[in-house]
Amino acid sequence: MKYLLLFVLGCLAFTSDKPAYQFYNQKLKAVDYQKVLKETKEADVVFFGELHNNPICHWLELQLTKDLYADRKAQLMLGAEMFEADNQTALSDYVTGQTTDREFAKQARFWNNYKTDYRPLVDFAREHKLTFIATNVPRRYASAVARQGLASLDTVPAAQKAWIAPLPLTVDLTLPGYKAMLDMMHGSSAKSDPEQGANFARAQAIKDATMAHFILQNRKPGSTFLHYNGSYHSNNFEGIIWYLRQKQPDLKIVTIASVEVPDVQKPDKANQNLANFILHIPSDMTKTY
């Protein structure tokens, strides 16, 4: 009777808990963080698909970075959508200790939530002398593609094309991710101008292709490249991953997707196969902005 009572009390304590997150595998079977860590340790490239304003994502990104470093040491490389390729010198100078945080802030374009959400990652790289790659296309080029299409990149000076994925770029608008974007645009002004909607998808593609390009250009055999990006850039093994696979289909890639749900213990079947691991976070989680 004593042990039965303890068991019942333990069950009640568990059911009254309010977990801040829960990982699931591709088939929506609950897994713990250690399973995620084990798989990422064995990968060539890891994508942590985040929700940009979610504190749980940012905390877990830092934890995964620390734990991968404990195992991989100098074989761990970092990269991020949040830094654009033309800011690579500024990022490298800061990470290698050649400049101060004030100088870095003057030299690079930061996202508004840099201090709270991304600086801990950059400072960790600086402390442990890790390579950190600015993978994203400069936003002015993505904006130009969204307005005028890929032809707008033809006039970019040759030296500046080094910050963009090699051109001409193949964009498959039939891929489910881009197609969903086009479908979503049907209710906007793109409905009367389908090409505008297509250009919006192409702008996402130039980001995906450029991030893939700089990952491949910088990763080293035997290393683990941990990349932070918005979840939509790697969801469903598309986006960045599609472009990686065109060049190196044999890469071992592990993806993490992030979703918000009313109850993290009740996964939504719609998220099945979204990634190797799907991070479920309460939809009422507080936001960083």
Rounded to an integer in angstroms, the radius of gyration calculated over CA atoms is 20 Å
Give the total of beta strands: 8
Give the rounded overall mean pLDDT.
93
Helix-strand category: alpha/beta
Task: Specify the biggest β-sheet.
Answer: 8 strands, mixed
Order of helical and strand elements: HEEHEHEHHHEHHHEHEE
Q: Which segments are poorly predicted (pLDDT under 50) over 5 or more consecutive residues?
A: 1-14
Query: Any idea what the shape is?
Result: globular
Question: Beta-sheet strand percentage?
Answer: 15-25%
Spatial order of the strands in the main sheet? 2-1-8-7-3-6-4-5
Q: So how many helices?
A: 10
N- to C-terminal distance: 51 Å
- Helical content stands at 40-55%
Structure commentary:
By secondary structure, the chain is of the alpha/beta class. It is 43% helix and 17% strand. The protein contains 10 helices and 8 strands. Strand 1 and strand 2 form a beta hairpin. Helix 3 (55-72) runs parallel beside helix 6 (114-128) and helix 7 (139-148) packs antiparallel against helix 9 (194-218). It is globular, with a radius of gyration of 20 Å. Residues 1-14 have low confidence and may be disordered.
